[in-house]
Write a structure and sequence with these properties.
This protein folds into three domains: 153 residues, Beta Polymerase, domain 2, CATH 3.30.460; 174 residues, Hypothetical protein af1432, CATH 1.10.3210; 47 residues, no CATH class. It starts with 13 loop residues before the first helix and ends with a helix. The protein is elongated and about 90 Å long. Helix 7 runs parallel beside helix 9 and helix 14 packs across helix 17. The relative contact order is 0.06. Helices cover 53% and strands 11% of the residues. The strands form four sheets. Strands 3-4-5-2-1-8-9 form a seven-stranded mixed β-sheet. The protein has a two-stranded antiparallel ribbon with strand order 6-7. It is of the alpha+beta class.
Length: 485
Amino acid sequence: MPNANNDSHTLPSTNELSQAQRRAVSELLRVSPVADDLARRFREAGFTLALVGGSVRDALLGRLGNDLDFTTDARPEDVLKIVRPWADAVWEVGIAFGTVGCRKADFDIEVTTYRSEAYDRTSRKPEVSYGNSIEEDLVRRDFTVNAMAVVLPEKAFVDPHNGLEDLARRVLRTPGTPEESFSDDPLRMMRAARFAAQLDFEVAPEVVTAMNEMADRLEIVSAERIRDELNKLILSGHPRKGLRLLVDTRLARHVLPELPALRLERDEHHRHKDVYEHTLTVLDQAIDLEEDGPDLVLRLAALLHDIGKPKTRRFELDGRVSFHHHEVVGAKMTKARMTKLKYSNELVKDVSRLVELHLRFHGYGTGEWTDSAVRRYVRDAGPLLDRLHKLTRSDCTTRNKRKAQALSRAYDGLEERIARLQEQEELDAIRPDLDGNEIMQILDIGPGPQVGKAYKHMLEMRLEHGPLEREAAIALLKDWWAAQD
């Protein structure tokens, strides 16, 4: 790829540059049939087209997927005229911001007009104005590693801000000053933490300083945009790195204030570590237990499982620190925080439930639970049982190997008991031995509250005694009915 940048700069090493170039060439060859075809159509219409931003960065890293980002001097209405006859599908969701989306073969494509955008200091929405050159477009991008372009179809490399050098050094810098960049769009501060977590890059010191000084600017950004960035960070390969950056730069106070609050608390089981460090370790360990890719529910539950501790901390007379019922308080706090961040009701419910249940296993002790208690554990966890297994195992961060092994063996024993009971009793779909219609027929009553009470009683009998023969179930129901006023 010829370099259209006239600035000369020294790369960290020739080898790193050649590796990046080889990766980029390989990736660009893969997407060329579609990308070059589209570029020729733009050129025939009198416009230019360039692969840009994250697509170029990922090509250089050898991880370009099938989502392709392009930039052009064509205005959105001209872009629509060009892509409509060519694409398999076209959407205009982002057209107010200069972006036209389309699908061609296996590729999802976004074409954005050269632009610059800035936030009014009191507004949550960016003001969009179109630019006239690719250099003007690149300077408004968030980080130098995202401010590179490849002009198509000739494959001319444009890198006015030394993004390739920063990519080789694995560092995040802004094209202009970080203060100007973050003033234009405060969400870029969160993106710094997200990219650090996704790419395992370091953030330049001047960028960290600006994040710390300008953290309060995040207040003008909508909860939905903050939530989406937080999700990307949490689902990344190195979430601990991004979360630390959020906490250390005060951004977490505006996103997840419960997290930095844990730094001041001492964990009753691990006095050599505060709850904050314990939480990050639990998150790491939960990630290690994932089987089918990143699990947002599990990761959020691991991150939030102990947030009730600051509110429940008590100093006991014997010198110990207690956090009684922190799981109940934490579940309520989790629901409140996730609701404020506009998470879906289902996600709020699932994560809150895991936080509420994460200590239940510790009542298992030496394995002396009755079958009834095991059934209730499974019933209360419901479809979250597998995640609860993972969260509970992850919550053991003790350095005492003997204690850790004992806890692991105890949980192994509980899982084995659950498996045996599930095989015998179909625990996943526990229901009373008598359904509502049978209850009404046996008691000779019609629909109403008493049927619900009877059903609940029979469910308790099922949990307590396991599957019952029909005659025994009928006898228990009649005994209960006779005792009602």
